[in-house]
Amino acid sequence: MTEAHDRSLRISPTPEVVDYVLTHSLPAHPAQAALAARTRRQYGGLARMQIAPEQGGLLTVLVRLVRATHAVEVGTFTGYSSISIARGLEPGGRLLCLDISERATDIAREAWQEAGLADRVDLRLGPAADTLRALPPDEQFDFCFVDADKAGYPGYLDELLPRTRAGGLLAFDNVLLGGEVLDPRSQGDAAVMRAFNDQLAADPRVDVAMIPVADGLTLAVKR
Ligand SMILES: C[S@@+](CC[C@H](N)C(=O)[O-])C[C@H]1O[C@@H](n2cnc3c(N)ncnc32)[C@H](O)[C@@H]1O
């Protein structure tokens, strides 16, 4: 399949390349730099759970592309990705944020205030699968971003796809899991993610593109 393609024009995301990409993309919202620093202070190495900076502008552009007024995020943490999504919404748009951590989302609430986006965001605390199941069946989303517990991805797809409008976009983060999904012997989250990736790529309800940005981002447009 790919043997016939010349791969010499592919570039590795070295730090220099990522910096170049960042300086030629939508800049981060000023509130995101302060948020990243605060998250680092409070969470140390766990701050790596935030999306990569080069994914921030990408999310905003994708939200703009689908002209989203209704968006949902599964896995908000301290709010970095939610700012990228919320700033791309159409006027009057709303972002529903789902997470289980009160501590992390207290930081997110402050960041939304600082960014002037608090009036666009609804936060619901609790297991995201329960929150999604309890939504009215006719609640429709234009854009869905999934970045929570990896074992939950198949269930999130089941709940979100029927609630996504035709032409709407679903984005799933960390689909490469540091490359672990490529090893057929890997277990746990990697096995779940491998099965999820196989299932989504073959799902006739969506057109899928897996993007090797950061830890892997799959885009699925609903037919
Ligand atoms: C990778 S972090 C999200 C990072 C965030 N998107 C960002 O860019 O800052 C994953 C988040 O999912 C949340 N989470 C884990 N399991 C969950 C569940 N069952 N329901 C809702 N949220 C969950 C965690 O509390 C954590 O804040």
From TrEMBL:
One Pfam family in the UniProt entry: Methyltransf_3
EC class: transferase
Record carries keyword Transferase: yes
EC numbers on record: 2.1.1.-
UniProt-listed GO biological process terms: methylation
UniProt entry keywords in alphabetical sequence: Methyltransferase, S-adenosyl-L-methionine, Transferase
S-adenosyl-L-methionine keyword on record: yes
Protein name per UniProt: Caffeoyl-CoA O-methyltransferase
Gene Ontology MF annotations: O-methyltransferase activity; S-adenosylmethionine-dependent methyltransferase activity
